[in-house]
Amino acid sequence: MSHRGSRVLRLDALARVEGEAALHLAVRDGTVAEARLRIYEPPRFFEAFLVGRGHGEPPDITSRICGICPVAYQTTACQAIERACGVTVDEPLVELRRLLYYGEWIESQSLHIHLLHAPDFLGHPSAVELAREHRAAVERGLRIKQAGNAIMEQLGGRAIHPINVRIGGFYHVPAPAELAPLADRLCRAHDDALETVRWVAGFDFPDAEYHGPLMAMRDPGRYAIDSGTPAVMAAGVGSNGSTPVRALPVEEFERHVVERQVPHSTALVSELDGHHYLTGSLARYAVSGRWLHPSALDAAREAGLGDPATGAVCRNPFRSIIVRAVEVAHAVAEALRIIDAYEPPSRSYVAVPPRPATGCAATEAPRGLLYHRYAMDADGTLTLARIVPPTAQNQSAIEDDLRRQVQSRLDRPGEPPGDEELTALCERAVRNHDPCISCSAHFLDLTVERG
Amino acid sequence: MTGRVVVIGVGNPFRRDDGVGPAVIEALRARAPAGTVLTDSDGEPGRMLGLWHRQDAVIVVEVVHAHPGQPGRLHTLTAERAARCAARSASTHALGLGETFALAAALDRMPRELTVHAVEGEDFDLGRGLSTAVADALPELIRHVAKAIDKAHDRLRCAGALTDERGSA
Known about the structure:
The structure holds two protein chains of two kinds.
Chain A: E1 6-11, E2 18-19, E3 21-28, E4 31-39, H1 43-50, H2 58-62, H3 70-84, H4 91-121, H5 127-133, H6 135-156, E5 165-166, E6 169-170, H7 176-201, E7 214-218, E8 229-233, E9 245-247, H8 253-256, E10 257-262, E11 265-272, H9 281-288, H10 294-302, H11 320-340, E12 357-365, E13 368-376, E14 382-388, H12 390-411, H13 419-432, E15 436-437, E16 444-447
Parallel strand pairs in A: 2-15
Antiparallel strand pairs in A: 1-3, 3-4, 5-6, 7-8, 8-9, 10-11, 12-13, 13-14
Helix pairs in contact in A: 3-4, 4-5, 4-6, 4-11, 5-6, 6-7, 7-11, 10-11, 12-13
Chain B: E1 5-10, H1 20-28, E2 36-41, H2 45-49, E3 57-67, E4 74-78, H3 79-84, H4 97-106, E5 113-120, H5 132-168
Parallel strand pairs in B: 1-2, 1-3, 3-5
Antiparallel strand pairs in B: 4-5
């Protein structure tokens, strides 16, 4: 097969990504003409669904958007509504919310690292084959994940779609004795998480670089997850001892981040001031790496990511697996810190009376920055809901990364790549960015055998 | 440790017929015998593996996509058959139910017994509510699962009695 001809690759289903996505790649005369990721995105459905509902409902309703990151949706929704109503939540409740969020981070990032991403680096088609050959590593990943699950169940009331979160705080806050068993699990998970960093740091990483702007929440002094302000590190900025970032007040988010429809995807595609950009682990590490928990900082240095304390930046999407592993170590250590210092809040929630207003908020879901804006009338009836999920924001950047990686392979001297090789390369490139295409169906595909 | 009967309704109520698993669990809450664990799940493999112990009898309720299809038709699948049906990327994690069972086997975490009770779906679009074909089949599916729960309890009791006999011998 000549790489000079024209060919089209269609992947109607991408393996090992969160949810449903398809890819269309067109190569003409040795040049990548098109790389289109088709994503089935439900938040727009939810935006319409929310209008006319009460201002207390977005946390419960939006948590249903995604089985993987319901806390991200709940936390962002709560913050946006609370801002609209001019309510400040007590700091102990903010810390408890943060603990719940860490639970989700631990669970979600561990799943991706061990079951979805690691097989790529170890030459296995799936987690099943990986488990047969690297059973201890997969068991370790599941142990870490279960520590996250335990936090979700304890604080959220159940493992999926937590029901204990409400605007202003929680329906019920735990007694210290209820959190103590979590600490025992998390101590083990911390050792496991550091071991995972060492494990993934030993993988072979192809050369690749994402050159575009990186956007993440920034809250000086903290590896921002549920606080701070969106901040942008300019295209091409790397490890130069400083991290010049541009703050983007969350109230101005929609002025800079413009969503548009594209014919090939039900997801809206976002651009930042007219350019594609990346949110997620690489962006967070670039913007906030210096504020990681000390144990995670050490792990990052030992893993060859440079020294985040002096502004090291990682722009290689393949190495995002190391960054995610470092983030898990950070989340576990921070969860332990919160539990150690925990004293029951004086009240489980702060009243959030409605008023005619608009409020917006952004937090860091495991896969990247998540933005919500709500408008309500005097009795709290929602008149507008706007949700910008991370995968929609990353779609253009992922497509750009796909084009670059495929082009780089086509330009390499020697035997031209076959379709199978290009397909594998595309799938890896997409999985590096851990897109979460939520609200998907999970039916078995069954062939009826007739005797 | 005596095993439990664990019934898992896998699905997403916001994707039409994919909500059939959770719908069956909801219907069984008022009529399942004591000692039955009823839970719904999004099918995420890490969580699925945490829902059962090796001594348990597990019943999974799921929707299937069949070729050629006959929406509303019921199927009872063994774990082995379900594992062979592992579809690429037909789940929240591209690790479908079949792959979850295969992963459990690879990690030596399969339960004592595992069966899948499924109905062929028709409509997986965004939104709530089952298609007519699946809604019509729902009462029969609930009866099938209720009967399977009773039989599983009987088998566990027999197994427990055998274990007690051996223990006292």
